[in-house]
Write a structure and sequence with these properties.
- With about 80 residues, this protein is an alpha+beta fold.
- It is built from two helices and three strands.
- The chain has one domain (about 10-75).
- The chain has helices at about 10-25, 30-40, and strands spanning about 50-55, 60-65, 70-75.
- Strands 1-2-3 form a three-stranded antiparallel β-sheet, covered by helices on one side.
- Strand 2 and strand 3 form a beta hairpin.
- The longest helix has 17 residues, at about 10-25.
């Protein structure tokens, strides 16, 4: 099915889901206690001063910490 914007409904719903995730998680990225838990068990060491950026890797939505290169995925894309 196609939305009135011309995009498939699957991708329209995916974008709406991504927007909900960003709205929910973004305020938590200022909390060091929350962000330190993101990299637990991954082998990454996060710096004391973290700079988070929302990032799409292909269609996987996550946050990227630029200085360490850590990418935490919150939603897997359809790829």
């Amino acid at each position: 099915m196609i939305a009135t914007s011309g995009h498939s409904l699957g991708f329209t719903f995916m974008a709406m889901n991504y927007a909900r995730v960003i709205t929910e998680i973004d305020p938590k990225l200022d909390d060091p206690a929350y962000t330190s838990g993101l990299a637990v068990g991954t082998g990454f060491t996060l710096p004391a001063k973290q700079k988070w950026k929302w990032h799409l890797n292909y269609l996987d939505l996550g946050v990227l910490e630029k200085s360490s290169g850590f990418f935490g995925i919150f939603r897997k894309g359809p790829n």
